[in-house]
Amino acid sequence: MRAPYGLNIIDNCLTCQFREEYLFCNLSSAASEKLTEIKSTAVYPKSAMLFIEGQLPRGVFVLCTGKAKLSTSSSDGKTIILKISEPGDVLGLSATISNKPYEVTAEMMEPGQANFIARDAFLSFLREHGEAALRVAEQLSRNYHAAYEEVRTLGLSASPSEKLAKLVLAWSTNSVHPTNPLHLKVTLTHEEIAEMIGTTRETVTRLFSDFKKKQLLELKGSTLIIRNKPALEKMVHS
Fold first, then answer.
1. If 0-12 CB within 10 Å is exposed, 13-18 middle and 19+ buried, where does residue 65 land?
2. Strand order in the sheet with 90-91
3. Could you tell me the residue range of the domain that residue 148 belongs to?
């Protein structure tokens, strides 16, 4: 079904074309049918807030299409982007299970679909379907590992250039169709990249210019061309 923003709405988990790739995909028929029964589907515009840091948890959001950024802010307004969520990610998982306030703010970066599952219905679903509960435990473990790596990057990296190099290398690892030189699609602004590595927009702009002069990489519009991946790796591991 077509919806606003030209999106194809995924109404039924059983007929989703991506159902074998993500957390709640490829469950048993009974679990998938129950999941379809308890979810509510909505399409969100760019910049829509799914939930806000400090808000009491209402439930989880299963991102079906589009991207969302998860961020946290300090009292003086400084913001750090902790993760760019992709389709298939379940947002608000830890807070919903622990019944603690959401740790981050989830904001849509582009129009997309998210399925909302209220907390009580979600917990009941996990109690009834052990396979889903196991996958949630695995996801929480991966989230912990990712948070640990984020702390290492922000706290132990010696310089903004090292942090940017590490971020670019992470993007290259996730590339589906590697080329030489590697071309990546980057939809983040310099401000958002700065928020991911804990620096300023001006510093990110300067670093991209420096990296270009050193023929490490080049940013052309929304296309990032990695010209010397070994040099970036050496920068991170030196």
1. buried
2. 40-44, 112-118, 59-63, 90-91
3. 4-156
pLDDT tens, per residue, the chain with 238 residues: 555 666 666 666 656 665 556 777 778 888 888 988 999 999 999 999 999 999 999 999 999 889 999 999 888 878 889 889 988 899 999 999 999 999 999 999 999 999 999 999 999 999 999 999 999 998 899 888 888 777 776 666 668 999 899 889 988 876 655 667 788 888 899 999 999 888 899 999 999 999 999 999 998 888 999 999 999 999 887 6
Domain identity same for 110 and 40: yes
Q: Please, is 163 exposed, middle or buried when counting C-beta atoms within 10 Å of its C-beta (0-12, 13-18, 19+)?
A: buried
Residue entry with tokens 């299409």:
65
Do 141 and 191 share a domain, yes or no? no
Q: How many residues does the chain have?
A: 238
How many Cβ atoms are within 10 Å of 71's Cβ, its own excluded?
Answer: 18
Beta bridge partners of 220: 223
